């Protein structure tokens, strides 16, 4: 397993400030990633994103998350507007060997969970040592 002693945390300002690339506002979603012997599990907050509006890809050791947020106005005039609308985008370099054919994901109420199973040769092996 990876050494997690040097996990860095972004400040709140870094995580919520939209980037103005690709002709619109893109937010960096908040993400927690956990590792077991069998898989990496990623949890991301994507408020306003449904499973149908999510583009999730794994290519050449990188995981790409792009969530499209639909406008909630639908012809109504906003009385108070504190929620800024913009898509979510984030890319991850995955150092482990992942079995891409077994990746699975769920998105419920804007909470994304991605399961990235490790290939057999990337899993730690216990070696029995005989005395003699």
Fill in the keyword field for this structure:
single chain, about 130 residues, mainly beta, Immunoglobulin-like, four-stranded mixed sheet, four-stranded antiparallel sheet, 1 helix
Rounded to the nearest angstrom, the radius of gyration is: 19 Å
Q: Find the count of extended strands (DSSP E, 2+ residues).
A: 8
Return the CATH topology of the domain at 24-71 and 85-122: Immunoglobulin-like
Tell the overall outline.
elongated
Q: Major sheet: order of its strands? A: 1-6-5-4
- Tally the helices: 1
Secondary structure layout:
Layout: H1 12-16, E1 26-27, E2 30-35, E3 39-45, E4 54-59, E5 62-67, E6 87-93, E7 104-108, E8 111-117
Parallel strand pairs: 1-6
Antiparallel strand pairs: 2-3, 3-8, 4-5, 5-6, 7-8
